[in-house]
Specification:
about 110 residues, 4 helices, signal
Length: about 110
């Protein structure tokens, strides 16, 4: 009778160790998330959800070439996951958006 009890205690011990490890990894992810976001924010490749279609429609609603503006804005939004507020300027609100350039060195994103 002592052998099954030892096996049961050993199983509970292993289960407890695995459970502690899972919680430790989860808490480590939550703690490091803030520091990783600051690094990833500079690259602007973090996975924040944004409705690019709506954001670009608002950004390009006053443009003279709305379809061209929306297409360029859409590709920038997909890459950067952000669109500056307003219809023009405000590029400092989204550094990745402002840093994208065409082959000619001009700003790609409207």
């Amino acid at each position: 009778m002592a052998a099954p009890a030892k096996d049961l205690v050993l199983c509970f011990f292993i289960f407890f160790i695995l459970l502690v490890q899972v919680f430790a990894e989860a808490s480590q992810d939550n703690v490091s998330e803030g520091s990783e976001l600051s690094v990833l924010d500079k690259r602007s490749h973090y996975s924040k959800k944004i409705n690019c279609h709506y954001a670009c429609a608002m950004r390009c609603r006053k443009a003279s070439r709305v379809k061209f503006c929306s297409r360029a804005c859409g590709s920038c939004c997909q890459k950067c996951k952000c669109v500056p507020p307003g219809t023009y300027g405000n590029h400092n609100a989204c550094p990745c958006y402002a840093s994208l350039k065409t082959h000619g060195g001009r700003r790609k994103c409207p």
